[in-house]
Design brief:
Blueprint: E1 20-31, E2 34-41, H1 42-45, E3 55-63, E4 69-80, H2 84-87, E5 90-97, H3 105-111, E6 117-125, E7 136-141, H4 145-154, E8 160-167, E9 181-188, H5 194-203, E10 213-219, H6 220-233, E11 241-247, H7 253-275
Parallel strand pairs: 7-8, 7-10, 8-9, 10-11
Antiparallel strand pairs: 1-2, 1-6, 2-5, 3-4, 3-6, 4-5
Length: 276
């Protein structure tokens, strides 16, 4: 580079992420398309709870061609720390969606065995249901189901929650436990429309009045579409909205990871149009 060429300003140093380690202690198929992998170890016991129901880790499932780790993010469905004092270890459950040989995480979950080591980054977190909210709307597909289930379990008695969840078929439905006044609607992929089901419930007067605290995660196109709707039709402010595209129809995992920044920019434009 010659002296006459402008140099880009130095940005902040890259945040160092410390790999953590655990051991797989159990693997079981919860439904035909969901496998629960339990991991345990002293490093888990050393990590304080985040205080969020949507706590996630990034599993290291290989290496990319350029040497970077191949990462996939999964919600910590539940954690058991009760015996830490005695054993020095904690146990976490991770629920992974499986669709045959598709993707990376699903095949790993179906092949991993108890006793195998696992490396991960995190945990990170970004959402917990506000117990003071007038009501809660939780919408997502099977990729978001672990986080939705964890949120419902955390809601106190007296809270009002409406959850709409898309799964491949009736055999993929789960019993979701909540002390809240819960209305749960299952949508079967190909036989119904997730966003349309939410809109129809609102049009029929089946949803409470007032702005809910919203958790909206899953397929990126659906999330952006329904995100616009809850902002305009339900008057949900940004601070009461957790919305994220986990995957995008027509894109593989790496393509979506590379393009997610464009999606986030489009979402910001949606919000700017509301203000304008």
């Amino acid at each position: 580079m010659s002296d006459s060429q402008p140099q880009a300003p130095a940005g902040p140093p890259a945040r160092k992420r410390t790999p953590r380690h655990a051991t797989v202690t159990a693997v079981r198929r919860v439904t035909p398309h969901l496998v629960r992998v339990t991991i345990a170890g002293p490093e888990l016991a050393a990590l304080e709870p985040t205080g969020h129901t949507d706590t996630y880790v990034k599993l290291v499932l290989g290496e990319l061609a350029d040497g970077r780790p191949l990462l996939r993010a999964y919600t910590v469905r539940s954690r058991r720390d009760a015996d830490v004092a005695a054993s020095g270890e904690a146990e976490w459950d991770l629920d992974l969606v499986v669709h045959g040989d598709e993707g990376v995480g699903g095949p790993w979950a179906t092949g991993v065995q108890p006793g195998e080591p696992v490396t991960f980054l995190g945990p990170g977190a970004g959402y917990a249901p506000d117990p003071e909210a007038p009501w809660h709307l939780l919408v997502g597909d099977d990729a978001a189901l672990p986080a939705i289930a964890a949120a419902l379990e955390a809601l106190p008695a007296g809270a009002v929650a409406h959850a709409v969840v898309e799964v491949p078929g009736p055999e993929d439905e789960q019993e979701l436990v909540s002390a809240a006044d819960l209305t749960l609607t299952w949508v079967h992929r190909g036989a119904g429309d997730l966003a349309g089901t939410v809109r129809a419930a609102h049009a029929a007067g089946e949803l409470p009045t007032g702005a809910p605290h919203v958790f909206l995660h899953g397929e990126a196109g659906m999330v952006r579409d329904l995100r616009r709707w809850v902002r305009t039709e339900l008057d949900v402010p940004r601070e009461l909205l957790s919305a994220s595209g986990y995957w995008r129809r027509g894109s593989d995992d790496e393509d979506w990871r590379a393009r997610k920044g464009e999606w986030k920019a489009a979402v910001d434009q949606d919000d700017a149009a509301l203000v304008g």
